[in-house]
């Protein structure tokens, strides 16, 4: 007497269910990994921005002035070389070659954790006061305050004016006398931002927006922004023996 053995295989429905479960698990894992990578990139970007601020303070201690921003095609050096009247005060790049910073891209610009160029703005109040050798000291000796005018707002809502007359809305001003602003445009770089807050960091004026990140959508904001106070600048110049 022989026994017949029946092997039961997957039905198409069961196979489809298994594939759906695998896809869901894989998708969830990929989302988790992507989110973790973004967190790491943001943390690394913050570290690089802090390093950039330290490098700027070291530069001003050694040279008595801040470097000008680099411009497109300037191969990572300040423009113009030697400072003076900067060619692009409010919409330039961090001059990694001038500052000796790494990592940088093939154009010589410092990059953030996503590989996008780090941006750098410098005040142009009173002409080239902070980017011309000995002008900070001259202002100090004359008893005049450093005329820094870069403004940091917590929101683009209610911003008014443009150029030298631009200002934050009442209650949204985080700083009104920044000497320099160092910032990353975030993971999405400068790729056609849709939110007003991100657009404010790319519209070539002296107003910048900084606040905690918000998720993707109409109000997306992933820019990271730090700035340099004139008082810290004075402190480093005094410590370096360049003031008084």
UniProtKB/TrEMBL annotation:
Protein's name according to its UniProt entry: General secretion pathway protein H
Annotated TM spans: 12-33
Xref: NCBIfam families: IV_pilin_GFxxxE
Pfam families to which the protein is assigned, alphabetical: N_methyl (PF07963)
Keywords of the record: Membrane, Transmembrane, Transmembrane helix
SUPFAM superfamilies: Pili subunits
Key word tRNA processing present: no
